[in-house]
Structures are given as C-alpha cells and as structure tokens.
Backbone:
C-alpha cells in the first residue's frame, strides 16, 4: 500500500493501485499534513538544538525556556527558492527567525553571528553575517505570522509580516532583499536571546496550507522540491568538516556497513552505526560520530559504477604473487586506489600523470611524495580490461 494523505476526505486511501485502503477513525480534515516518505517536509530538528528548546506538535512548535537557545530545521538546501511561515504564539521579548549555515555547530549560533541571517521580533530589525542590528521592518506580537523567503540561487533573503513584505521587498522579482550574499547549505532556524519572557512559535514549511500566498517561484521546503542525486551511489566517502575524525569509505561491492578509513592502515570493520544503506538520491547513516554527530558538518563524495561514469569497484583475493585483475571500465584507467581489506597496510594509488606511473605510487594515508621504484603495479601499465599487482 501507499498512503499519500493527499485527500483530506479520504486520508486512508491507498494510492498504489492495490486497493488496500485504511479505515479512518477520529481523524479530522484539519489533522491532514502534506508530509509523506516521498515528500518529506522540514520540521525543527530535535537533534540540532539547544537544551533550552522544547519541541512539540510534530516538531513544529518551538518553546524557548532559557535565554540564548537555538534550533535548526531538518532540511538545509544550498540552492533553490524557499518560503516558510512562523506563527508567533507568544511574543516574549527576544525571539528571532532566519537562516543559518549548516556547517556551524548549533552552539556557535549567537544573537547575530557570522553564520546567520536573522529578523528580530521585538524591534523589527535585521542582522546578518556578523553585522549589527539594522532598521528594517516592524516588530511582531502574539498572533502575527512572520514570512521568510529565501533565494539560495541568487543569495537573497526577505522577511514580511501578515502578507506584507518589509522595506518594499519583492521576492518574486528579486527586488529589495534584506540581505544578499547567502551561500552554502542553510537551514531555517529560531533563536531566543536573553529577555524577561520567552518566545513561543509554530513553524509551517508547507505541511499545512500557508496563511499567505508564497511569492511566485518559491516552494515549500520538502524533499520532493530539493534537487538530489538521481542515482543509487556505489561508493560514499564521508568526512566531518568540523571535527577531527577519520575518513569513512563505504561501498556496495563490499557491503554497505563495512567501514574503512583512507587515513588509516587498519583493516575494514563492521560499523553498525555508520552507513546503513544506499538508496536513490543518497544514503542513510546511523549515529557513528564520524558520519553523524549532532551539530557537526560533513561532506560526502558519491560515485556511480559504470562505463559511462568511468568508475569501477573490484575486489580480489591476494595470492602473494604477481597477478592481473579484471575491471569493467572498458578504457584504460587513469587513477586507481588499492587497499588490503583483511589486514593492516598502507593504501596505494596509481596515477597516469606521474613521471613513471607503472613504477611509482602515492600512499593516501601518508604525507609522502610519490614514491619511485615500487612494485605495487608489477611495473606494468593497466589496460582497458585488467590492471596488474
């Protein structure tokens, strides 16, 4: 069965065509949300927040209980045009909403730091990229809807209130943005500054009908609207950008849960909390620190096997003697990396651009220059069907 929840009058309807409809009991049309596995809509992230933030109502309601607390959303695009709304359910004295760089740990997001662009509820001012507070719009109070429009294709952001954009802004035409220069992976965020009372808000990223019409060309923040890889990766190389952790290599040839590090000599190991599996558009990870620490930022390089992408992964059994190994590129490889899986030893890399590639090697886990006189490739250049070791 497939439940799309697209019809508020028949939320149990099976859209797979198999007729496995669910009977709906005690669910009103107002309970419907446009949030499904194929259209996963952003919420505020319980794994990316300060301890003083309490989330409820599907992680869309934010209650700040202490000053200087922050929470970021679950989705962080680096391109596209996005619209979301923030309903102020209790104005407090020092609430803010805006966009923050994903690479910045949530603990580093301050009242107006270098990694964020924000609108100040209590003054109507704006603040961004480490600058000071600047006059912009008008203050908000309980019951107001703060509108945010973000154009990450052109690095712009706007705010408005109750259907009117501040400072003659026009996101649809690109006119009069609050800020320019936004870049990188950014997520919606909420910040509570020090004050005598705390702010409560409810976010809407498109789960429910918006209170106001989004600007032309701006979309709800959900996975169906975010461009992703359109293939199932065969290799993922993952590294934390904000912490001193090992590199992690995972591939489908060996098995998704087998981890090996290109900065290490050790054998592969099973990591149950590492990469859990590959899927169309990316991969899933567990809670292993080097692939998924709360507040950390990561980079992942994804590769697809095949003649067209020009990439292959092969495994073979060592025999202690010279041998040739078949590959499926159909062309002579320019670059190869080899690592023993069952024991501790250096990585070895071949590159056609070296002075004498058949007798030289680079060792990725070491800081050495290319080494000459090595026997890694049996002094034999690879061909369109085999390579030698």
Residues:
């Amino acid at each position: 069965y497939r439940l799309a929840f697209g019809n508020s009058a028949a939320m149990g309807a099976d859209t797979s065509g198999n007729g496995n409809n669910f009977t709906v009991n005690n669910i009103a049309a107002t309970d419907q949300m446009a949030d499904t596995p194929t259209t996963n809509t952003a919420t505020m992230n319980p794994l990316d927040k300060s301890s003083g933030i309490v989330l409820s109502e599907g992680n869309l309601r934010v209650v700040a209980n202490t000053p200087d607390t922050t929470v970021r959303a679950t989705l962080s695009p680096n391109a596209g045009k996005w619209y979301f709304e923030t309903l102020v359910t209790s104005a407090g004295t020092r609430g803010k909403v805006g966009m923050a760089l994903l690479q910045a740990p949530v603990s580093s997001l301050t009242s107006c730091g270098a990694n964020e662009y924000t609108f100040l509820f209590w003054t109507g001012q704006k603040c961004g990229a480490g600058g000071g507070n600047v006059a912009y719009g008008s203050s908000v109070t309980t019951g107001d809807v703060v509108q945010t429009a973000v154009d990450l294709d052109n690095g712009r952001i706007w705010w408005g209130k109750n259907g009117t954009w501040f400072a003659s802004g026009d996101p649809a035409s690109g006119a009069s943005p609050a800020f320019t220069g936004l870049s990188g992976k950014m997520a919606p965020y909420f910040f509570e500054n020090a004050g005598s009372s705390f702010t409560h808000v409810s976010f809407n990223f498109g789960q429910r009908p918006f209170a106001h019409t989004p600007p032309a060309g701006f979309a709800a923040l959900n996975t169906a609207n975010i461009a992703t890889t359109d293939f199932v990766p065969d290799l993922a190389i993952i590294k934390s950008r904000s912490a001193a952790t090992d590199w992690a290599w995972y591939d489908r040839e060996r098995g998704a849960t087998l981890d090996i590090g290109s900065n290490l000599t050790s054998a592969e190991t099973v990591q149950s909390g590492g990469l859990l599996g590959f899927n169309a558009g990316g991969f899933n990870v567990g809670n292993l620190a080097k692939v998924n620490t709360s507040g950390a930022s990561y980079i992942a390089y994804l590769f697809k096997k095949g003649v067209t992408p020009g990439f292959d992964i092969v495994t073979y059994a060592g025999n202690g003697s010279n041998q040739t190994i078949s590959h499926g590129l159909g062309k002579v490889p320019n670059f190869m990396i080899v690592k023993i899986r069952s024991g501790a030893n250096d990585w070895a890399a071949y590159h056609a651009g070296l002075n004498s590639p058949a007798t030289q090697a680079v060792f990725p886990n070491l800081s050495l220059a290319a080494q000459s006189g090595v026997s890694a490739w049996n002094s034999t250049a690879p061909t369109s069907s085999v390579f030698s070791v």
Observations:
- The mean pLDDT is 90.
- The first strand starts at residue 44 and ends at 49.
- The CA atoms of residues 148 and 159 lie 5 Å apart.
- The chain is about 0% helix and 30% strand.
